[in-house]
Amino acid sequence: MAMGVSMRAASRKLFDVLGVRCYHVRNVTTSQPTLPTMRQVREKLKDLVGAQKNWSEQETAKSNLTDILIRDKSKLPIRCMNDSYQEAILPLGQDYRLREKYLTFMKGVRFGRILEDLDTFAVLTSYKHNNNPAYGPVSPMYIVTALVDRIDMHHQEIAPDCDIKFSGKTTWVGTTSLEVTMHVEQFRENNWKRLIDARFVMVAKDPLKLGKAVVNPLMPKGPEEEELFNKGTANQQLRKHQRNQSLLKTPPNEQERTIIHDTFLSTIDERSATFKLRVKPDNAVWMEDTLLKNIIICHPEERNLYGKIFGGFLMRKAFELAWANAWVYCKSKPVVTAVDDILFKEPVDIGSLLYLSSQVVYTEGPNLQVKVHAEVVDPTTGEHKTTNMFHFTLTTKKGDISRVIPKSYAESMLFIDGKRHYDEQKAVVTTK
Predict the structure, then answer these.
(1) What pLDDT was estimated at residue 59?
(2) Of all helices (H) and strands (E), which one includes residue 183?
(3) How many Cα atoms are found within 13 Å in the side-chain-facing hemisphere of 329?
């Protein structure tokens, strides 16, 4: 016993010398069972979908799973929300090697890594909801992220030396899609403190990836679950309304048109008596000057369970580009306050050239909205195909920042779209 204590003391001393403090975290109660780690969650998913262990090996045929896939929703067992509830731990307070992977140069936690873990956890939660005895050890369906509907931050700073707990469950289902609501907490000052709320929309596909697969029905139990389910229904209707009101389909409303015109007039030199000469207002930046790009060669190391590039990896890369862009724009280190409407339009193949383009599209006070557009490029033909759209809301402690000003009509549409996303985030904060 004495030797064990002295070894731990020596270990702590060694960590102090290296500048890394090892922080051991206990569960809320000693009777609480040990939670699976995020690493174990990933391994469980690999077994559940029969993922290939090595990319160089030929992928196992999935055609035999088509026959056992249940396509009639009425024949699937009805689930309640607690059936899919699960928790997992990210042991940053116990595993100093893991901590290095998550540590930022500012001694914080890389938010992009948390996005990866949320994506993984949402997939496993979805599979747990669709855990049918008739399917056996390998599921005949593929479940992928269709949309990151909303991520809200309760605390902007995450400690790098305290354990993080993920919890979540399925809170709404359609015919082939389902909504997963998740929470992220951190063990600090002998208590679990809420860090993040997240809502992902998942979609099920057949094993040959040729069409969608039906998911288990969900029956809420009690007033709390009914409220969550009704909220999920409202979220689905809101998403449909927002798609119909997209600026790609409908013109800006009257108030938005006035904003565009007033912004345009603020850039006109009245002495020139012409619309052609544009003048940048004081304390402003042209939107075209906020563009920051990156290109990624997609290697097998970043593949998901189905042989495509992992969506969480795409989110991490997009966020880090948006954060860097915001840092350059604000001239001070920003923090993320919300993520919403991350659309997974097309899968990204291994070997693709992925172009990421970030741009500051809206500013208000110390806050800014950054949009990241992802597209794959065929180097032989030059063809571009959009795969993802990302929207990040960030803020800075510096105070009010320079206004971003659109110059063209296309940039004005980006400006209005950015304002819509920012106003939605502001409305969520106000109602909390």
Answers:
(1) 59
(2) strand 177-188
(3) 38
